[in-house]
From TrEMBL:
Record lineage: Eukaryota, Metazoa, Spiralia, Lophotrochozoa, Annelida
GO biological process entries: protein ufmylation; response to endoplasmic reticulum stress; reticulophagy
Entries under InterPro entries matching the protein: UBQ-conjugating_enzyme/RWD, Ufc1
Similarity-based family: Belongs to the ubiquitin-conjugating enzyme family. UFC1 subfamily.
Species in which this protein is naturally found: Helobdella robusta (Californian leech)
Keywords for this protein: Ubl conjugation pathway
Protein name according to UniProt: Ubiquitin-fold modifier-conjugating enzyme 1
Active-site residues (renumbered): 116
GO molecular function list: UFM1 conjugating enzyme activity; UFM1 transferase activity
Function recorded in the entry: E2-like enzyme which forms an intermediate with UFM1 via a thioester linkage.
Pfam families given in the database record: UFC1
Presence of the UniProt keyword Glycoprotein in the record: no
Amino acid sequence: MVDEATRKQLSSIPLLQTRAGPKDGELWVQRLKEEYQALIKYVQNNKTADNDWFRLESNKEGTRWFGKCWYIHELLKYEFDIEFDIPVLYPTIAPEIAIPELDGKTAKMYRGGKICLTEHFKPLWARNVPKFGIGHAMALGLGPWLAVEIPDLISKGLVKHKQT
């Protein structure tokens, strides 16, 4: 299902061990530590490979995440706000990443700007519970979605470059 480059990228993101969600008290704190460690490693790997493409932060409880992602197309940087909540049944259920400003511009999106990951990503996530985390959602969910959808939206004139 994944190519060799993706497989290599995935192997560099640490797998998570703790099966816990936001309502699991101290176990959630442990899971959150693992999430941050994996995300930090993924971001470091991306920077080393000159493939830095997102920033994320969370609220104090680690239940609400927000930040920016960007996509370079024909030497122009297209930047978008991203957000998602950690589902109550996490990590059994993957987070639904949203890009609110693109809401309604593509069929591969749900209400509120949530990107569509049902056919490809969610089955992979389900097979890898609790090992996959937020870093994996970015690498296997948002990254490929941006690579397919943003050039298409640009070519249709639905996304325009913001002049700085």
